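Dear colleague,

Following up on yesterday's call, I've attached the two folding results inline so they're easy to grep. Please treat them as preliminary; we haven't cross-checked anything against experimental data yet. The first protein's sequence and structure tokens come first.
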Amino acid sequence: MRALTPDQRAAQLFMVAAYSNRKRVDEDSISALIKQYGIGGLIFFQGGPARQARLLNRYQSQSRVPLLVAMDGEWGVGMRLDSVVKFPYQMSLGGETDTTLLYDMGREVARQFKRLGMHVNFAPVVDVNNNPANPVIGFRSWGENPAAVARDGRQYMRGMQDAGILAVAKHFPGHGDVDADSHLALPTVRVDRRRLDSLELPPFRSLMAGGLGGVMVAHLNVPALDTVLGPSTLSRPIITDLLRTEMGFKGLVFTDAMNMRGVISMFEPGEADVRALIAGNDILEFSKNIPLALRMVRAAVDSGRLTQQEIDVHCRRVLALKQWAGLNHYRPIDTRNLYQDLNAPHAQFLSHRLTELSITLLRNQKNLLPLQRLDTLRIATLVLGGSPRDTTDFQKAVADYAPAAHFHASATPTLDELMKLRAALKPYNVVLVGLQSLGRLPATSFGITPETNLLLRELVDQKQTLVLSVFGSAYAVAKVRDLDRAAAVIMAYQESENAQSLAAQAIFGGIGATGKLPVTVSDRYPRGFGLRTAGSFRLRYANPEDVGLDGRLEARVDSLVGRALAAQAFPGAQVLIARRGTVVLRKSYGNQTYAGFGDVVVDPKKKNPRVVGNVQPVSVPRPVRNDDLYDLASMTKLMAATPALMKLQGQGKFSPDSALGNYFGFLRGTNKADLKMRDVLAHQARLKAWIPFWQELRKKNGEMRRRYFRADSSARFPLPAAAGLWARKDLPARIYKEIGESPLNEKPGYVYSDLSFILYPELVKARTGQTFDAFLQKEVYRPLGATTLGFRPTNRFPLARIVPTEVDSAFRRQLLHGTVHDEGAALLGGLSGHAGLFGDANDVAKLAQTYAWGGRYGGQQVFGKDIMAEWTRCQFCPDNRRALAFDRPAANPTVNSAKSASQSSYGHTGFTGTYFWVEPEKDLVVILLTNRVHPTRRNNKLTELSVRSSLLQLAIEAVRK
């Protein structure tokens, strides 16, 4: 300190506001203050991480004494900077009991601060918000109970300071019980000293006892502590007498921003700064006029209002803090991988997990949640508030569980809009309402408008089941009239992506509701209230660390898939990995096609259908999205035929110990009549692997015979084989006859065969009177909410969502888009038990998880537990690795599993580049959907690169506990 002049020592006590989203002239003005006056520090506000890092490197290079850098990071760096993970608001965390996660959050926030070259966090807020009318603290507080505020604030503080970032508790002596905003006016705390000692001050005392490094003093008029009207930031009785002497605080004292009306409404800039130093503050934040303030401080010293000794005491504390922060070994910020470092997997995990624990269930009539029997529900979502342009994260999360119609209304709809909305919602028996874009101010009823209340009342009057999710202040609940007429109410506290997703997960049972209210909302809903529900009812969506997996799993999968994309093993893919019923990775990669491949059409004017050419050739292919549908190819056997047979077995309509001839009359008297179903399903019944049925339906020149195909559909040609190509209705009977007449393999043993699976739709129809697809939708897919699974996808989904497969140059002579890739299934109109099923990875996961959970999902025993165990165990080991229909690990693990896969694991691969595998010993489900046959099936790089096997291996290796 001796190297600094008196004026330079005074300058060390000033922190100037800096932004990384402003113009160069603003940046240069900060540089001027650093170079000309030697200010001691900066507090950064809005901007972006990379921009701030570059700017701070510049500022530090211009400062003789390294700058002390701070930020208001109450919920992390993301509070101020874009592109950085945000942690939940303090109030949403105030009802949680697992405070160890708050310590972890503090450490993670500190890691973010250090990565950005910052040293001080103006957090935590330890104001006790016992006044719902408080216009400025509210959601920023841990709650209304002093002990809980102290407990939570102390854990957050400890985490930050243990990781090397100074925590600054605010807003001393307590900003929780006011009805004015100190940014706009000077609030008065109208309580006596006894009340202050019992409610406002205990959290500060607790944190000080735990080693708190900093306190921020608020702009408050507190007559019980200082009888002179004025802000506490300028009060010597409050700062020196109470905070320093009586409470024994040894750390640094910071003012709240000195540009706020709570202080400058009474004293001009410069004079306010002098009075703040006289009162005992160490660092003045956001002074409005630095040159003026420094001149007036010098004048105050010269006049005797301040002493140089007082300035030196403050300066010594500042320099000691800089040394503690490591600024005596200052290094510039390394901007490489900055975004990835700030958004590390552990940060994502903590933010999501803390939000999950906060979700509070306030009402649950007749145990409505989690929703039961999806196949009986007609679900609509209604978002009130926000922009109508996009589907919200809440609505997207609902769609992950079940089909739903999505609606939106403004917070203040007209009467005509209300009536139209009511009519539009009438067909639905369950309406999931999300209240969004809610305000934070009591004066606006926290965003709950009269129109909102009217609409909610009208919905309830229609006898519809209403589930209300509140994405805003806890106090907003009290403003919702007729709240008790809703069947269920969820308090989500904020409108983050995590909060919206987790509210939906609580509704459907992906997670259990465990949160508790941190404040009293009403007599019915006091602090600590919260109903509980169980989770693991359906799929949960979270992060690898939630289920004991390495947080680096996603990066490793990215690398694997990236290498495959670079090698053109496939143009795009969907990957899903789940553990213990929790989806930890669900991601789409690449594009649906390569550039230049658009849809093709056939010329109906020609006698024989043929390709005309591309329609609007694709120069920029469509990226793969999570809800795109893939041709599942041979996975159809396990995702359609197998569940159908297991359902029939549970209904007493099928047995693996019967014979083929018992189920197919046209096979009686053939060489297949006595084949045992157990042998057939294990692929050791000597059936041929496949029959190229389509080859005999074309001429020698390769063109298709007109007697079997037409360019337009009709009663004689009703079966869609491709775009503009319809097959004759008797082709299925012809195929069945060929199967019946086909010879058996000469030698016994394992030969993977399509033939019996082609027949199973007929078995289902004969035993149930329902078509194969109708039976599956009713008995399996709709109960699971897996409604992208199905045949003939263009009947249900837009073509843009269906991923194309091969450019078929031999048979259909076009890019196959929306129709099945397998030739045999195409001749059956796309409906078969061996191929033809389409779906997305999320819905495949629902069925695969049902298998992993012993046939149970969504509260229903979809398949008998004993039946599941029978079908997934090896039937004829060691001679044949197969279970019933399910594949099991091959001797060469790269064929279908992985080197670390257990012998109890099972799954299947599909010809088009699809894959699912269940690893019971690690409780894993792994899914990969690709269109590796695009543009040609001769592309075998997926297998050559062992992508499927490597993906499973990565998942297994990620298991930590």
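Below is the second protein, in the same order (sequence, then structure):
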Amino acid sequence: MAKDADAANSSGEFSSVDGSAVIDEKQLIRIEAVHRGFLYQHLYNAMCLLLAGAARVQQIVVEGDEDVEVVLRDRRIYVQIKTRVGKLAAGDISGALERFNDIRAKHVNGDRPGVPSFVIASNAAPNGPLEKQLASADWPKDVELHWSDGPEPKEACLPRPPRDLADAVSKCSELAGRLPFALLRPETLTWKLASQVMLASAGSPPRKGHSFSSAELPELFEQLIVQMQELPAPPSVYRAQINEPALLAEQPVRIIVGLSGAGKTAWVAEAAQHTALPVTYIDVVEMPGPALASSIARQVAGRMYGRSTGKLGEILLPGASGLDMLGTLSVTLGKEGLHADVVIDNAHRIPATDIQAIVSRAPNLRLLLLCQPGLDVTALEARFAFQAEVLSGWDEDTIAAATHDAGCVANFADCQRLSRLTGGLPFYVLNAATVAARDYDGSIESFCEDVEAQTHIVETAQEIILRRSFEGFSTEVRESVAVLSVADVALSKDEATKLLQGACGLDMKGAAARLRSLPSTGALELFGMTGLKIHDAVRMLGRAELTTRGPDLEKKAREVLRGIIMRSIREDWSIGKLNLLIRLFGQLGDAMILVQFATDELFHEMGVWPEIEPYLLAIAADEAADAEVRLWALDGLVFNDLRTGQTETGEIRIDAMKALLDQHDLGEDEWLAWGMKRMLLKSMVGDAEGVDEMLELVKERVPAKAEHMRVFRYNRALAFFKLGDNTTAIAEAGELVEEYYEALGLTPDDVMGRNPPQLRPLLPKGRDNTDQLKHLADTLDLLAQAAGRKSQRSTMARIHAMKFYELAQAYSSFVRVGMDLVDELVWVNDFESARYTIERNIFPVIQAIGLTSDVLELRALYAVVLAYCGDHQAAANEVRRLGPYEQAMAPGHRAAFQDQKQIIEDVRRNGGPSQRGVDIPAPLQALFDQRSGVRPSIEPRKKVGRNERCPCGSGLKYKRCHGR
């Protein structure tokens, strides 16, 4: 740098040092000027260092060939710095231009790499003659002049020259303040860099090469050197799980527990995108426990204060322990009224004591711990005295959408089945869909059948991942999981203990001890204090383990469980238990019991036909089986054929029943079963002569008992209805209704305004009324169908039929008649009543009982009703959720769904009919209110809040269900 003494001409203010006069005042002025010039140069260099990272500078050299040499990838910039008090003149830079010529020649000759360019940086503006020289054609194209008030430098790596030292300090500090994760205050870093430039200018170790490389800049700047962990990117299509917990909460520590594949990290990644506050994510998969406090302190401080001036240095003190830094961080957050949310993935790997220490030292941190189940989570729950939260997996609609997008076909029952096999865990569902699309022609049903039968060839990701944990269990734990896996419904603690006792030959203490060891493995799901079962995702491995332990243990486990479920179902009936019991009877060869189930009308109301049908088919086809058992198996199959309109299959099986009657000496009951079924078949195919013939034959053989005759007359009325003779059917059904009312000690007036709970006390005591209730409901339903739409008689008959079906626990018929009633209410424009019927009557029954056969049809109907009620968004949402099921719908249902979608769209575009006015006379309304126990005034239906429970009965919040 040219240290021109003229720069000192105006500096005559200082004529003393430390209060004493100097001998040579001019010398002092010259010395001050020289040092001001050097300091200006050092600060300019410091600014270049601060700009270097963003400008992708590779190296900066000071006091080499020029004051500053900036090395870029394929070029070099040489800067000479000039400080002047007055204007900059041509004579001030002539030496610089000559120097530039020498350097340029080195590059031209190949002695220096890269393309050179040159800059003269000055605090002084050019004078008039120099300005003219700059504008002349003779001025070198590769030389620029920068000054304080001149144009902004084109190169991002070069600062605008400061006006003076004060301006240089200010501008350098400003650049230092922009550094992320800087530990030093900006002013402190400014003077540190200036001194480092001075050291390099002198060529003193460790700067003998006069240079700074870009790689050393973070350390030179004392930036926080830490690889900030970022949240993984959420899936391109994120599908919410059932009742997902909130990501942020007020508690100082929470635990989210789930098996590998439960989608914990994806949930956090998605939820974090919708939070206003920053979330720090740390995966501790390989991190030792003691290092966690330091990692949290550095990551949170970097994220919260990475761009604040000097706060990082106050928090991350050299030599301080991780807990000390956390404590300082928490105090800093507290002073500002802030808190920091931290997600710790794989937190089960960190000892509970280390987590406790962090929580104690940093009360302004909120920790969310993502854990896999096990003893570590149990220890955390015990230490913090709360229960872990869970991700509950995908519901059937979400599974349907995911499998549909994977190219698979699945109906509602298939999605329920896949949910049971995978626990609804997202990763396992997606892997199953991939396997089904590739190896099962997209059939989820076929995939599930193979997996349940353990005949699948391709191992699923679920098996591969969970086996690692499963094989780490002790022999006793694996045996316990295997035995308990035969139950896919929750058992009570006593029932589970008895199952382990009976199957494994343990005493009560031994079985209880085994049971206590299971929750910490993650293989056992607990349902409050009353129920437990092996996790759905683990049961597949448990069943495979049971098979490897030999047929004796498998058979014993099933026999013991059969007895347990038979006792349990009498006290606490459920569809799930009935399904399980049917499978156990079939697996254990209890053919007669299955046949008895299948020939009971009420059995067909439970929605469990898919469970029993395979066993009945096997019994009916077994020529070695007892003829009577085979006939009743065929009778159950025919009942379902006629119920579902499969007349061709039904006719073949009815002929098989007749063959058994002809070949064997069977009884009157067997003949009547065949005769009734044949009569109904003839009516369904429109064979009036065949019906008359069978009526005469059956009438001669029906026992002369009132109940038997009523059943015969009902079937006769049904046959007339099927043949289109509604008049006769109505007359016969009307008489039967009166007789059934009389047999039950009721009148239609008794039923008006009373719901089933209020009707039950009015029924005859000391006898089973189930059959008569069911038959009365059947007859009322027949009467309504024969009467047709727009008939007050049909509407009331259906309402009463629903009440009696509910009393008889004939839930499938309850739902079917309920949908007929909704259709009728829509037909007469009473849309609000239709919606009320679905939301308050039908949905709750389907939800409570677990019926699946009519779910999709009902929901499609519900969407239409919503549209007519003007709730177009809810209707569109329901149609969207039903879309993935469409391909798997039966042809008739699919066509109806397409028509319903068109109705919904038409109503949205053009509007629908007006709601019919319903005027109930005041005395009648008062009677209804009195009998049903409701308030005497009728409140208008309120809009459902987004956080309220959905009226469909799903148990989900409205925003997560029909409010989406």
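For the second protein, one point worth flagging: The CA atoms of residues 406 and 434 lie 6 Å apart.

Best wishes,
A.L.
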